Amino acid sequence: MDKFLIKRPRFPSATNTHVLNLNSAADSNAFIPDTNTPTQKRANIEFNPDSIISDPGARIPIDEYDVNIRDQVRRAYIAKGPFRPVDYTFPKNGDSRTFQANWFGEFDWLEYSIHKDAAFCMWCYLFNPKRADNSGKNAFTTTGFKKWKKALNKFRSHIGLVGSSHNEATRRYQAFKNQKQSISHVFSAQGHEIEVDYRRRLTAVLTVIQLLLRQGFGFRGHDESSDSLNKGNFLEILEWHCENNVGVGKASRSNAPGNCQLTSPKVQKELVRACASETRSLIFADIGNSFFTLMVDESRDISLKEQMAVVLRYVNKHGEVIERLLPTFIYTVLKFFVG
């Protein structure tokens, strides 16, 4: 601890400030005053930013600093940045594997300890939240990680999902680094999460709609209430999709905003029309300037409305005969071809 502090003399005979040298055997056993004494409390407040240890394996935990100077310690470490040795030959472990310097470019939080030959996370060291899910996950803050064979997988696992401890520490780091914009940063982060969740819900709904269109199944059910045993193909398949996809499930159903209408009949029809438009565009692009024929048939339903079906028959670029069924809004299609 004395390495990071400018101590006041405890005895009248002391005239020089003592600085702890970690490389000295004598200093490693040096007497550290009781932290409960008023003298030591005053010394804690007099933090010297020039004497912090850069190597993450030799640092003291951030929580051991006096609460009044922790922000000063964090600013000093942020100013220095993650500890990354330059032109250093990383030693081999028992599997003849070494730490790779190019990992620094992929993970901005990553730093390396020469003292322990291990990898650490600077953001988690400075802002690691005290949470229940942190139990057993202190390898990147205290002991260090040194199993290089599966290093990349472990690094990505350490980052985790949006709500992981590492991402929480990263958000705290960004807010602390840009304190004048911390409020806007928080709102921006929340806005990004809302956008990600919306994209997941929309993608799930489109996936189900594409499946039903491809198979020619109906969408609606006779009873789509919450306590219905069969809500129809669309809602039942979407429910199954949410149950088997954790990411979609967390953003959908009861976790979705109350004003979300992606499952409403109106939005279903709009998405179906969008799929039909994309399908027509692909068919027309495949035909290009080639010749084609039309096969037209119509029938009258029970409401005396005539439904017309049109099939386009043509030869594609690979010499294959293709037949494509077009929707009932054929008049627009014929006008497109015939003019």
TrEMBL record:
List the InterPro entries hit by this protein, alphabetically: DUF4371, Znf_TTF
| Residue ranges constituting the TTF-type domain according to the UniProt record | 95-189
The protein's name: Zinc finger MYM-type protein 1-like
Q: What organism, scientifically named, is this protein from?
A: Heracleum sosnowskyi
